[in-house]
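re: the backbone from monday

yeah here it is again, tokenized this time
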């Protein structure tokens, strides 16, 4: 399943517009907060498809029947750009376990690149719901490598991917590699440059959120 959160009119469209706007991007706090908001909305939407159980809760005046998540998910993010989106998910799934993966593009002089994945810290993920956040789903290469890396640690019951903006090329690649994955995105663009950047996209989410890095 692929869910474009901008298909229906909502505040998500406002936040995506601000993320893209070069006149607003200079405000890093606002940029991070908009990513966080999209993570919150994605968490709410994902919660609707998770398993719940009925539980009795004692109130000062009696007993109420409530529905609670059967199991807490594992929320994973790709450092560093995914941190604000991750925080949004964690704001709502506030009892979730967390995983962190270092994955980045290692560029060659000819302009090509490969995905370097150097670090992972994760809890037990066997037979659990896994939610992976990465603000830009461009080629899909880093997400596919991340999924393979995490599956080496355990086999999740289901996998959800959350992105602020995704490209159809990347979505198709991820779905070819793992058809069972559900993708939730703030919006979907159709064009990808030869260097693997989404057009119109929004630029480098990590740089806009945290400052320009030295290119490795």
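seq for it, each position gets an aa:
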């Amino acid at each position: 399943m692929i869910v474009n959160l901008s298909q229906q009119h909502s505040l998500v469209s406002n936040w995506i517009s601000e993320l893209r706007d070069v006149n607003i991007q200079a405000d890093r706090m606002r940029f991070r907060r908009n990513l966080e908001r999209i993570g919150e909305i994605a968490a709410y939407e994902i919660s609707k498809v998770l398993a719940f159980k009925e539980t009795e809760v004692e109130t000062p005046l009696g007993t109420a029947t409530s529905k609670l998540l059967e199991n807490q998910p594992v929320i994973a993010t790709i450092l560093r750009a995914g941190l604000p989106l991750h925080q949004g998910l964690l704001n709502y799934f506030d009892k979730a376990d967390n995983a962190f993966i270092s994955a980045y593009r290692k560029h060659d002089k000819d302009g090509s690149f490969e995905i370097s994945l150097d670090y992972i810290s994760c809890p037990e993920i066997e037979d659990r719901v896994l939610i992976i956040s990465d603000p830009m789903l461009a080629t899909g290469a880093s997400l596919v490598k991340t999924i393979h890396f995490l599956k080496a640690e355990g086999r999740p019951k289901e996998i959800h991917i959350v992105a602020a903006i995704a490209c159809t090329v990347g979505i198709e690649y991820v779905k070819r590699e793992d058809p069972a994955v559900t993708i939730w995105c703030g919006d979907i663009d159709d064009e990808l440059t030869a260097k693997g950047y989404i057009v119109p996209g929004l630029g480098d989410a990590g740089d806009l959120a945290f400052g320009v890095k030295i290119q490795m």
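The chain has a mean pLDDT of 92. Helices lie at 11-20, 28-47, 83-92, 141-151, 168-177, 205-210.
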